[in-house]
Amino acid sequence: MQRPKRRDKAATRAALLDAARLRFARQGYDGTGVREIAGDVGVDPALVFRYFESKDRLYAEAVRTELPAGPAPGRPLTDLAATLLHDVVFADWEQFDGEHPLLVMLRSSGRAAVRDRLRQELCEGYLKDFTERMGGDDPALRAEMVGALLLGLGVMRSLAGTPALAAAGFEETRELVARVVTALTEAGPPAAG
């Protein structure tokens, strides 16, 4: 009597996460089914629920990523912006079909749970770091404006594929982003007009 092959739990779990990342990146949350993900790996859909309990938890784990840590205190915020520009906008996120997980989440942002997760990733990650380092008037607003710039660059370059941003190199873009970040970092009270 031949014994059935034992499944490598860690490898199967990792394969399910990889399949989920690609499906969620291409089809969004609502367009992706647990059966499809399980089929991509060649396992029963019940196994997805055994490892992740729900599609929501699978999604949360599949799109979770560590944003790069900010520069040491005292270094300019342009360094953090350059790191994020490189690691979020210009990086090759092969496991997410070439897009950063934040952009993957944008595809599914019609769902309240996904919007909440996106807000949490942004606000508790680098925006918090930006705000703490910003100083001056309205630091949270200015930090969120920097975040909007970086996220917008990612959307324009990766999702929309606009020609100028798609053709621009990292160094050229970094220099322009540094100018905007410097202007927002050094912002004092608004000028009377």
TrEMBL record:
Entry keyword Nucleotide-binding: no
Gene3D superfamilies: Tetracycline Repressor, domain 2
Keywords per UniProt: DNA-binding, Transcription, Transcription regulation
GO-annotated molecular function: DNA-binding transcription factor activity; transcription cis-regulatory region binding
Pfam families according to UniProt: TetR_C_16, TetR_N
Residue span, HTH tetR-type domain: 10-70
Top-level taxon: Bacteria
DNA-binding region per UniProt: 33-52
Keyword Transmembrane helix: no
Protein name: TetR family transcriptional regulator
Species for this entry: Nonomuraea cavernae
